[in-house]
Write the structure tokens for this entry.
Amino acid sequence: MRKTFKGIAVSSGVVIGKALVLPDQEMLVIKKAIPEEKVAGEVARFNAALEKTRNEIKIMHAKVKKEIGGKHSNIFEAHLMILGDPALTTDVEKHIKSEKLSAESIFSRSVNKLVESFEKIEDAYLKERANDVRDIGKRVFKNLTGSTRETLADIKDEVIIFARDLSPSDTVTMKREKVKGFCTDLGGKTSHTAIIARALEIPAIVGLQNISQNVSDGDLVIVDGSLGVIIVNPNEEDLKHYNRKREELIKQNAELSKLRELPAETLDGYKIELSANIEIEDEAKLVVKHGAVGVGLFRTEFLFLNRLDLPTEEEQYNSYFKAAEFLYPNSVIIRTLDLGGDKFLSHLGLSKEENPFLGLRAIRLCLARPELFKTQLRAILRASELKNLKIMFPMISGVEEFLKAKKLLEEVKSDLKKEKIAFDNEMDLGVMIEIPSASLTADILAKEVDFFSIGSNDLIQYTLAIDRVNANMAHMYNPLHPSILRQLKKIVMAAHKEGKWVGMCGEMASDTAFSALLIGIGIDELSTAPVAVPEVKKVIRSTTMSEAKKIAAEVLAFQTLDEVKLYMNAVNKGACKYCK
Ligand code: PEP
Ligand code: MG
């Protein structure tokens, strides 16, 4: 029977294929008694399974580190730590001896208890750790029972994976040429699965709630990763529609890839800096693949997520240097940590906040925890030896905050000088303009910084008082609101008056419906998702700056959102999702 589902679209593209449903292997709590004389043997069997699991994880760690890189292999270090947790090791041994129950009985009970206690925690980050414990538990359990579950690394045919959730060890070890897409019950836009899917450019949909119970192995499915739509057992019409859409996408991509080497230049010769946003250093290859010049936003907090410990200075250095080296001589703008908001890090021991988006987020957290901030600044400075890095501070609310952050940067520079460690002393230093207080004081900030980058995602959220992750309020989240457009113009004027450039790295820059308007307002750089680069480039290359300026002037004169929408809808011949 034909069924459709809608989830959170996290990685675009259309794929049609056979489903492979991964069973959610919850461990069965089978209470099995053992005679006294078998207790020692049972403990030995349990320890052997632990040892085998430890070795498996170490092998996986080495393999992933070699093939994909350090960032993705870190999770296995965390898994080794969990494996060493007394609740899962010494306690199990103790209870096998005292209760005279099988290793499976005691171990599954301990794992479930630990999972439960993680799940009870309100904090989103710690909650996610329950999955790690479950992942490890299943591995040990497999080695205890000798079961041979097919892993994603063993897949023989091309499939689309359906699962309750995919563990980090599943996603990093899967055979990429066989896995054409994945869909999971759990997960959000910033979950590990979502990030990996985008980095691998595999269509993916998460947060589907119970998709894994509604699809069977071998079902024919269509996954539209751009719309977050899944059709199970599609009819002839669906197949015709999506086969056409796929072909169009393939043709479009082939057409767009011809633009890779061409500049983002208007028909009347104005060059726009078109760069891309990345979240992990491996995405640098997508920046080149899609024809962007460098990185306009490196969201460095992703190195801090999905793990149990803090990344060391060395690890951070390696990540930044790898991106800088790969993209040299193009520049990479490293944004300092933007933790908080919807990106938590519980092991920093921060207290829970009622309104995390208005709380200790980004630069505020960094100024409150200078040791954390300075470690990152040291890593960035050390990675700047090729002279193609720039630093940008997020969530700056005014000039004092910028000067405080800059002072810490100066302190780190002077430490490095004392230690005779080379770095780029001339590195540009910019701020994100994403809080109305910063845009209202842009004239003051412009005197102090080298550049601005507008974070439209947050600027819209904080200006319109619309939570950017609240799906129920999404209808009121509109980049075309006159309050936003006026701010953009004021920010540009303030920067240009001081001879500074202005970029935009929020999602607004990735939407082709806004490209002409934004360059017409005077934005000098657009930094988009890597996949959006070719389309934005195409629009820029088919417009003139005089036309773009005319659009901007008309739009800025309107008083209401409705007028702007009507006008922009006409400009985009109906292809404008915010104009409806
Ligand atoms: C923004 O706010 O527009 C931005 C680019 O930063 P982030 O989405 O990481 O908050
Ligand atoms: Mg932001």
Q: What stands out?
A: The radius of gyration is 26 Å.
